[in-house]
């Protein structure tokens, strides 16, 4: 696994947009060379100044910011307002889902930083790109609603099939401890003392006492 954050000198032309390129591949056998070449070509055609290149090599897109050092370093550069735009090859280089991308876009937007995605043709510095960003918010909300609906449907289906949801009760997992609790209750020991001595919850002892 390799992580890089390269810094280049700032351009002398004051009007050039400062762009940070983000590169990522999932395995050590893959290379970021094509992503780098294409994005640098785009920057040259647009007259952008590439001031930093951040690379997470051999890191899965399923990992979050805390496990992707270059992504973390890039967002810190954004927070310091060292760049005007982030350029990446594709949406899947940045996040795991549309919701992840939208969260990233909001973070960039809060700092006045734009995003360019080569494969999706997204450039939030343009009117059409800003409109697409707004539409993505709608779709991200739809994605969250669908996930929530699937989870609720799965729980309902499991309940109909008799599946016990949540943590299994002590009565179903440790007959010897249940017996010990009952013996202690019969000996008139206090509920809290039994729970402490046998390392179980007070609610468990009360449930067995009421049974």
Structural class by secondary-structure content: alpha/beta
At CATH level 2, the architecture of the largest domain is 3-Layer(aba) Sandwich
Query: How many domain regions?
Result: 2
What fold name goes in the CATH topology slot of the largest domain? Answer: Rossmann fold
Shape: elongated
The CATH superfamily of the largest domain is known as: Resolvase, N-terminal catalytic domain
The main pleated sheet reads as:
6 strands, mixed
Number of strands: 6
**CATH class category name of the largest domain:** Alpha Beta
Give the ordered list of helices and strands: EEHEHEHHEEHHHH
| Residue share in helix | 40-55%
Q: How many helical stretches?
A: 8
What's the structural blueprint in terms of helices and strands?
Elements: E1 2-7, E2 18-25, H1 33-46, E3 49-57, H2 69-79, E4 85-88, H3 91-94, H4 98-110, E5 114-117, E6 122-123, H5 127-160, H6 175-186, H7 191-198, H8 202-210
Parallel strand pairs: 2-3, 2-4, 4-5
Antiparallel strand pairs: 1-3, 5-6
Helix pairs in contact: 4-5, 6-7, 7-8
């Amino acid at each position: 696994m390799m992580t890089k954050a390269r810094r280049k000198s700032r351009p002398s032309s004051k009007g050039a947009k400062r762009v940070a390129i983000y590169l990522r591949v999932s395995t050590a056998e893959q290379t970021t060379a094509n992503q780098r070449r294409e994005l640098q070509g785009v920057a040259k055609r647009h007259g952008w100044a590439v001031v930093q290149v951040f690379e997470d090599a051999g890191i899965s897109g399923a990992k979050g910011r805390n496990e992707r050092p270059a992504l973390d370093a890039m967002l810190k550069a954004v927070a310091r307002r060292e760049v005007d735009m982030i350029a990446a090859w594709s949406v899947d280089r940045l996040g795991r889902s549309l919701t992840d991308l939208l969260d990233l876009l909001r973070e960039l937007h809060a700092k006045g930083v734009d995003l360019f995605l080569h494969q999706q043709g997204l450039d939030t510095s343009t009117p059409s790109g800003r409109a697409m960003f707004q539409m993505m918010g709608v779709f991200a909300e739809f994605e969250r609603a669908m996930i929530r609906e699937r989870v609720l449907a799965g729980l309902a289906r499991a309940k109909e099939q008799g599946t016990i949801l949540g943590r299994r009760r002590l009565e179903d997992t440790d007959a010897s401890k249940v017996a010990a609790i009952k013996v202690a209750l019969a000996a008139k020991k206090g509920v809290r003392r039994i729970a402490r001595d046998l390392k179980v919850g007070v609610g468990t002892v009360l449930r067995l006492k009421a049974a």
